[in-house]
Amino acid sequence: MNLLDEEVSNNKGNKTKNIIKIIIVFIVLIVMAIIGVISYMMYLEGSVLRVYVNGMENAEIKNSLVFEEDGTIYVNVRAISTYLGYNSYSGEYSNKSEDNSKCYVETTEEVANLTLNSNKIYKLNLEENSNNYTYIYMDKPVKAIDGQLYITTDGMQKAFNSTFFYDQENNTITIYTTPYLITSYTNTILDYGYTKLSEVFENEKAVAKNMLVVSDDRYYGVINASDGTEILECKYDDVRYQESTGDFIVSSGDKYGIIGTDKKTKVSINYDSIELMDYDAGLYLVARNNRYGVVDLNGNNVIYAENDQIGVDISRFEENDLKTGYILIDNLIPVMKNNKWGLFDTKGKQVVDFEYDSFGYIASSNREATNLLVIPGYNVIVACIDNRYTLLNALGEQPIRAFVDDIYMVISGGEKQYLMNANDKTYDVEEYLDRLGVLESTSNSNNTTNTSSDNTTTNSNENNNQVNNETTQENSEQSNGEEQSNEEQQSSGEEQNNEETQNSEEQQGNEQ
C-alpha cells in the first residue's frame, strides 16, 4: 500500500470515529434532556398537593383547605362534609335558624354543633334516647374565612370522626373516615383471634384513636388496631368508649365501672349504670338499687346514691337552648328526693334543701307562654312550690324574694322575652333583675366578692318591695313565707317587748 492510500484510509477512520463521537454525544444529550424533563415533571408532580380520601384521590378537597403561616391547616366545614359522608346546615340542630355564625354536621348516628370563636364541639348521639349533649374540645376555635366557617384538622377529625395525615415530604394528605376504617379491619381482627367488631357507634369511633372494641362472641375487650395487642382483656359483658375522656365504661354481671386505656380502674364495677354528666366538672351519674348519685372521675362520691332522680328532662324546654339537664347555669345539679327537688353544686354541697315541687314553668292556659327553665343571661332557674314560682341563682338564693303566679317566656319575631305575673300585673323579668342588681353570667358566683353580694342584697331588698307588697296575700300560703314571716314577727315582737319593758323600768325609776 502506497502512502497516498494509507492517508486516505486514515482520514476515513478519523471521520468514522468523529461521527461515532458525535452520535454518542447526541445520545448523551438526549438522555440528559429526557432525565431533565422527567426530573422537572417529577418536581412539578411533587409540588402539587395530592389529597386522598379512603384511598381515592380527591382533587376538589384541596379547595376546602387553607394553609396558615404557622403550619396550621384549616378546613371549610360545610365544603368538606359531603366528602366525609355528612350533611351540613347553618344554625344549631336543636334550634333551627340561618345563623351563619353556627353550623352543624349530621349523620344517621350523630350530630356535631360548631360555633364561631368556640373550640367546643357539642355532640348528640342520635342512637340513644337522650337530649343531653356531650362535648369535646378542638385545639383552636372555629374561625371565619370569607364568610365561611373553618376548623383545624384536629377539629375536623373530632367533628367528623375521621383521621387526617399530612406528609409534607411527599406533599400528600390522607384522610380516612370511620366507616371505611371499620370495614378495613373487619377481616384483620380474625387474624388477631376475635370474631367481630362492636357495632355500637360510640365504640366504632375508637378506631380514629387506633383502638378497636372487639368480641369473641361472648365477651368484649379492646385491642390496638395496628398490631392487635391487648388494651382491655376480652372478658367484659359490655364495653362503651367515652370519646370525651378516652376511657371505657365496662360491665360485668350487670354492674358497671370505668377503666382507662392504662388498664387502671377509675370507678369500681359495682353500679347498675354509669353516664358521663359533664367532662369539665369531671362528674358521672351513677345508679344503684334505683337510687341515683354522682361520682367524680376517680370514683369518689360527690352526691351519694340515695336520690330518686338527678337532672331534669330538658326535652320539655326546647326553646331554652339547653345542652344538658344534669348541670344548670354551669354550677347546679337538680336532685329529687322523696318527691321534692333541691340543688347541689358541682362540688357536692347542697345549696337548696329538698323543698320545691319542680324546676321550670310549664305553660298551660296562657297560649302565648312558652315553657321556661332558666334565664340564661342572668343564670337563674325557675322553681315551683304549690304552683307558685320564684327564681334561684347559682348560690341557691332567691333574687326575687317572693312567689308569683307565672314566670314564662314569650317569643315574638324570633326575639325572646321573659315575663312574670303577680296579682294580675305583668313584669319584664330581665328589667326587674336589672333593678335588683343581678348581674349576668353569675355562674362563677364563688368568685363574687362580699361587697358585690352586699350591694346586690341591698338593691334586692329595696326593689323587691313592689312585688312583695303585691303578693303578700298569696305568699302567706307558702310554708317558707310563713316561717320567714313568723320569724320576723317574732323578732319584731321581742324587740318591741324589750323596748316596752325597758321604757317601763325607766319610767318607774323616774317616778321613784
Short description:
The protein is an alpha+beta fold. The chain has ten helices and 36 strands.
Overall radius of gyration: 36 Å
User: How is the largest sheet built, in terms of strand order?
Assistant: 5-6-7-8-9
How does the helix and strand content classify structurally? alpha+beta
Strand content: 25-35%
**First-to-last CA distance:** 177 Å
What do these coordinates show?
The protein has 512 residues and is an alpha+beta fold. Among the domains are: 52-178, Copper amine oxidase-like, N-terminal domain (Copper Amine Oxidase, Chain A, domain 1); 186-307, no CATH class. Helix content is 27%, strand content 35%. The protein contains ten helices and 36 strands. The chain has a five-stranded antiparallel β-sheet. A four-stranded mixed β-sheet has the order 2-1-13-12. A four-stranded antiparallel β-sheet has the order 3-4-11-10. A hairpin with a 2-residue loop joins strand 32 and strand 33 (388-392). The longest helix has 45 residues, at 3-47. It starts with a helix and ends with a helix.
Quick tags:
alpha+beta, 512 residues, 5-stranded antiparallel beta sheet, 27% helix, 4-stranded mixed beta sheet, 10 helices, Copper Amine Oxidase, Chain A, domain 1, single chain
Ordered list of secondary-structure elements with their pairings:
Layout: H1 3-47, E1 50-53, E2 56-57, E3 65-67, E4 73-76, H2 77-81, E5 87-90, E6 102-106, E7 110-115, E8 120-125, E9 134-137, E10 143-145, E11 148-152, H3 153-159, E12 162-167, E13 172-177, H4 178-185, H5 188-191, E14 196-197, H6 201-204, E15 211-215, E16 220-224, E17 230-236, E18 238-241, E19 248-252, E20 255-259, E21 265-271, E22 273-278, E23 283-288, E24 291-296, E25 301-307, E26 309-310, E27 332-337, E28 340-345, E29 350-356, E30 358-359, E31 374-375, E32 380-385, E33 388-392, E34 406-412, E35 415-422, E36 425-428, H7 429-436, H8 450-470, H9 472-475, H10 479-511
Parallel strand pairs: 1-13
Antiparallel strand pairs: 1-2, 3-4, 4-11, 5-6, 6-7, 7-8, 8-9, 10-11, 12-13, 14-15, 15-16, 16-17, 18-19, 19-20, 20-21, 22-23, 23-24, 24-25, 26-27, 27-28, 28-29, 30-32, 31-32, 32-33, 34-35, 35-36
